[in-house]
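Researcher: Last one for today. Full complex below.
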Amino acid sequence: MTTLDVDALLDDPAVGVIVCCGSGGVGKTTTAAALALRAAQRGRTVCVLTIDPARRLAQSMGLTELDNTPRPVPDIEGGSLSAMMLDMKRTFDEIVEAHAEPERAAAILENPFYQALSSSFAGTQEYMAMEKLGQLRQLGQWDLIVVDTPPSRSALDFLDAPKRLGSFLDGRLIRVLAAPARGAGRVSARVLGAGIGLFTGAMSKILGGQVLRDVQLFVTSFDALFGGFRERAEQTYAQLQAPDTRFLVVAAPEPDALREASYFVQRLETERMPLAGLVLNRVQDVRLPELSAATARAGSERLGDDDVLVAELLRLHADRMDSAARQERLTRSFTGAHPRVPVASVIALADDVHDLDGLQTIGDLLAR
Amino acid sequence: MSNRAPNWSRVRLHVVSGKGGTGKTTVAAALALALARGGKKVLLLEVENRQGIAQLFDTAPLPYKETRIAVAEDSGVVYALPIDAEAALLEYLEMFYGLKRGGYALRKLGAIDFATTIAPGLRDVLLTGKASEAVKRGEKTGRLAYDAVVMDAPPTGRITRFLNVNTEIAGLAKVGPIRSQADSVMGVIRSARTAVHLVTLLEEMPVQETLDGIAELRAAALPLGTVVINQSRQSELRPEDLQLAATGSLPESRIADGLQRAGIDPTSAVIAALEDEAADHAARVALQDAERERLLDAGLPTLELPYLPGGIDLAALYGLAEDLHSQGLPA
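Model: Here's the assembly. Have a good evening.
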């Protein structure tokens, strides 16, 4: 197993973006924040884009409200750190507002279909995270941007979302549906086959004609605004292939998280996106590896009720050793499949991280 | 520590939600096994298209068909069904519009995917519709198809919107079959036949999300069941020893003495390591206790499942079902 040199990564001036991805519940946000803080303390001008930080962690970075703008974190020695929380709807709204004259923008923002799309379409959050990254990059105020990714079930969602959203909005079907109901729509429907006619008919009956009218209005105004949405989505996606971008896959030593990490590593290879390494959080710390689980457990049983305290302490140690052994087995199955991926392990801390000191501790552990 | 369990006998639809990574699918499966004890027939539903149930029961991916996956005491049986919104919509179109053959073409065009994404509410109506249909199946004849239905539902952050299909669909369809479907689903979900359980770990973020979820579900007048505390680590130490460990005042000479008798060389390194581990353990237990208090303040009954250092396999799943059963599920 090769060790990931975290400080070398953070110090490398050729690295402008670090994207932290992984399945939900593995500590992505904390990792992103800890890396950003450490890079800033090592002299870089850093912005961290978080998605859904725990309230106290957000507060510790001075993020008291979700205002979709980077705010400087006070009292950082070395370089500087700005932090922001993504508001996906607001980001989408801002794109619309930036590209359309007020009247047309207002019409889009009020459209019920737009509202559904911008607040609950699966993948919008992932897409908006990338849009925001693009905006931050363009501002040019930071020499390193660390990105946390949305808490999706699958790490791959982050990569698939823009294409999904793009092809959804640019799809043949939405164009047919969006065409005026009695004009071109009929013609296109005939071209595409009777299925569509049946479908629009059924959809109108089930959902009501209003829905289709909303879609139609939305696509018409949106199209005038952006041309092809798919093209925009592809550009947004392409920035992840920029030469200054690095990916860090975050996982915990659990089967599901490591399986996701494995999928993700393969996918990055396919897409030629540079993987910096794997961050393995919540690793069981082993303080006394020379006292084996078996010896400790046998000792504990020998004492039994004679010395409850020491029997307890030995059992506690045996459990930790077992847990560490299991984690190592799981990790080995990952490193065996991906021998060239460098790994940084972070031992499990007893307390949750919710202040800058805690983030600093995590940073130290990451770079150990 | 746990409040009293609710009156389970009337509940037939158990909706299991929780923050991602808390083990919601595992808990849903264990609950299904527990409810199937005593010769009952239970349906376990999955709605997120990820074949988590198949992985858990170590079987090949499940088809969109109610499939028998496990047995319980006294010929109890658990069936599983991964609900696929697309398939459900096709079924629906076929039922109401006779679109059987057209359906395949529509799917190829991506039309079905389109229809279920264009209106997230539609997807939810289809998914919850399938659950409420399974609950009601056989009610009229008095021969229930399933004694209970357990749903591995979307995560806490989305559960209220997911279940509140009526409100979601209101802006969308004011009349028509989807509207009546939504009304009928709400009839089941808002009744005493349904309980929403939230799975959490004793950690800050999941607990906060659970408390937020409870508040949202209450505000939407949706029926809450229990909070399931998953992966709870029991204290290995007696309370008095925990106290000593937390304050770093474990008696070193006594530990040395005990180690000697256990046949382990009591070097200062060994003693220091055991003390460190005990202090770490005490800190974890204290954190867990604080989070448990916050949960109990929400006033819901709780069920607690242990952390399993060996991970989850089929035997562990039955063990968890046993744990749930012993905490007040009906026999």
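DSSP finds 14 helices and eight strands in chain B. The beta strands of chain B are 13-18, 41-46, 67-72, 76-82, 148-152, 194-200, 224-232, 302-306.
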